[in-house]
Structure formats: structure tokens, C-alpha cells
Amino acid sequence: MKVLIRGAGVAGLSLAYELRKRGADVTLFEIREGLTRSASWLAGGMLAPWCERENAEEDVLTYGKVSVDWWAKALPGAVAKNGTLVVAPPRDTAELNRFAERTSDYEWLDRVGVTNLEPDLAGRFTKGLFFPEEAHLDPRKALVQLEKAVSSLGVRTCFGPEEPKVDADFVADCIGTASKEKELRAVRGEMLILHAPEVTLSRPVRMLHPRIPVYIVPRDDNHFMVGATMIESADDGPVSVRSTMELLNAAYSLHPAFAEAKITETGVGVRPAYADNLPRIRFDGHVLSLNGFYRHGFLLAPHFAAQAAETLFQSSKETTLETHH
Predict the structure, then answer these.
(1) In Å, how far from its chain's centre is CA 15?
(2) Residue 202 — φ and ψ, nearest 5°?
(3) Helix 10-21 and helix 297-324, axial crossing angle in degrees, nearest 10
(4) What is the pTM for the complete model shown?
(5) For each of the chain's 325 residues, which pLDDT tens digit applies?
(6) Is the four-CA dihedral 43, 47, 48, 52 of positive or negative sign?
(7) Cα separation of 241 and 231, whole Å?
(8) What is the CA angle 239-244-248, rounded to 5?
């Protein structure tokens, strides 16, 4: 079975991996030059199904649970399974109770518990929630490593404006907001990357706020990804002043040393979403669409890529049987 996959974001790469593991002949095509222009490149990289359940459907938790093991198996050493810490400024501690009511599989922490988990936050928070089963990865490293992994498995990867000529049995569209699907909408997310040599964190920290909750994810060499806004817009222009101020204020509220941090990057990603904010697999003739990952690309791609691969192989078997009859 030959498959042409369009789109080398996290969905397309994950599907290439799943198809090749099952023995398919796969060509992966990305119209842009390289991996750095996709929304996946700007992701937080949190594998946090329990936290996401706070404002997402049960399916996000159910399907997201497999992601930690999937990524750890596909990319050995890429996943840091240190859990997630959720805190709130003193004036917003009621937000912690609300968050706890909507989630599960957490531990309540007191001031000492927060300090033991993240010593740099000593004395700053009287309460917190710890989700020990959650994990995170660096999405940029993960995309690069996954592209290398699928190439080493025999996937042909092609970057650039010219689509390769492939006599494919099936085409899989994983092209995000470039899709012409009318039901898809665009959701703008803005992020910052800060270099804060005086701050050390071992895991993602979510700062709750009634209006704009923010997460801060550690990266290499005291760099931190701070994100992300969720704006119903297809505008992919530069990050706004308002969003920059809100993200920086959240980082400063977490630790005052962020005031001395350097802003090394700002980014805007426009993510595809359906009305229920859940991905969908659609199959029409010989074209499969895998789209609508919203803010859950790295979390849900493993499940949906495996499901899409099974759909294609099942269809291939049925086509073969019909041909023989």
C-alpha cells in the first residue's frame, strides 16, 4: 500500500510513523521548506491529559493517556515525566478548587509540598495541585527527531513547493489550517520564549487566572516557553502588546526573577479546530483527512494517527477483496 501524506506537522509525522510501522510505502510531503513554519513548532509540548480535562471533553483524557508512552517509545529519551504543577496567585486560590473539581488524578500540596517539588518557588504559594502522571517534551526537538526516525524507517520525505509524483493508493491530508474544510476554524495562539538564568523549574507549571490561565514550560539552558493565548482568529501576524503583557505578568507572578529575563522569541501559531475542539478522521474515496487538533497536537496525535493508519489498511484490504471478486 502506497500513501502520500501532505503536511509534516505533528499529525503528518505521527501518521507516517504509524503507517511505516505497519509496512506501508510512505511519502511525506511538506510544501514549506522545513519543519519550522508549522503550528506544531510553536507548541508547548505538554503531555497533560488530566490538566486538559479541566476545559476539554472526556475524549481528550481518554485518548491522551497513551501519548506519554507513545512518545517515549518512538523517541527514547525525549520525554520528561516529571508531572505538572498547578498554582494560583494568592488572590485567586479559589481557582485551584475549581480546577480540582474538573480534573482527577492529582495530589493537593501545601506550601512545603510546593517547595519540595520546585525549590525556586519556595514561599510563593500556599497551595498547589500536582499531576504526577503527566509529562512534557521539547516539541521542536521532537519534530526533528520524529522526522529522522521516519526517514530511517524508510519514509521518503520531500520539502518544497513541488509535490512529488507518487502513484499512491491513498492520500492523507494533514495540512491544518491550509485545508479547505468549511467546518474548520482558526484559533490563534501566541507564545514567548524567555531566557531566565536565575530560574530553574523541573516541570511545566500552570498559573491559574480567571481570564487568561498561562503555562510555563522549561526548555534547555534556563529557557522557558510561556503560553498561550486562545483567540478566535486566523490572523497570523506578530504577537500583540496585550498578549505580551499578560504572558509576562503571569511569568513575573510565578517568579520575580522573570523580570530580568530576556525575551528571545515571540511566536504566533494558527491552529485548526472543529466546533467541539476534537480532531476528526474523514475518509472520502482515496483521500483521508486527519485534522482539527486545536491545542492538543502532541497529546492526541499518537491515538488519532494509529486510528487513521488502521482505517487506511482496512480500506486497502477491502479494496483488494473487491478486486479479487
Answers:
(1) 15
(2) -100, -5
(3) 40
(4) 0.95
(5) 999 999 999 999 999 999 999 999 999 999 999 999 889 999 999 999 999 999 999 999 999 999 999 999 999 999 999 999 999 988 888 999 999 999 999 999 999 999 999 999 999 999 999 999 999 999 999 999 999 999 999 999 999 999 999 999 999 999 999 998 999 999 999 999 999 999 999 999 999 987 778 999 999 999 999 998 899 999 999 999 999 999 999 999 999 999 999 999 999 999 999 999 999 999 988 999 999 999 999 999 999 999 999 999 999 888 765 555 4
(6) positive
(7) 14
(8) 150
The phi, psi pair for 70, rounded to 5°, reads -60, -50
Q: Which amino acid is at 260?
A: E
Of the candidates 222, 211, 201, which has an alpha carbon nearest to the alpha carbon of residue 246? 211
Can you tell me the distance from the alpha carbon of 228 to that of 247, in angstroms, rounded to the nearest whole number?
A: 8
d(CA 114, CA 127): 7
Residue written as grid cell 520528561: 80
CA dihedral 118, 230, 210, 100 (to 10 degrees): -60
Q: What are phi and psi of 172, to 5 degrees?
A: -115, 120
Distance of CA 274 to the CA centre of its chain: 16
Torsion sign over Cα 53, 292, 140, 19: positive
Instruction: List C-alpha distances in Å: 284 to 145, 173, 178, 290.
Output: 31, 11, 18, 12
**112: which residues sit within 8 A by CB, 6+ positions away?**
none
Q: 3: part of which helix (H) or strand (E)? A: strand 2-6
What percentage of the chain's residues is helix, strand, coil (to nearest 5)?
35, 25, 35
Long-range (24+ apart) CB contacts under 8 A made by 73-77 are 74/17, 74/146, 74/149, 75/137, 75/142, 75/145, 75/146, 75/149
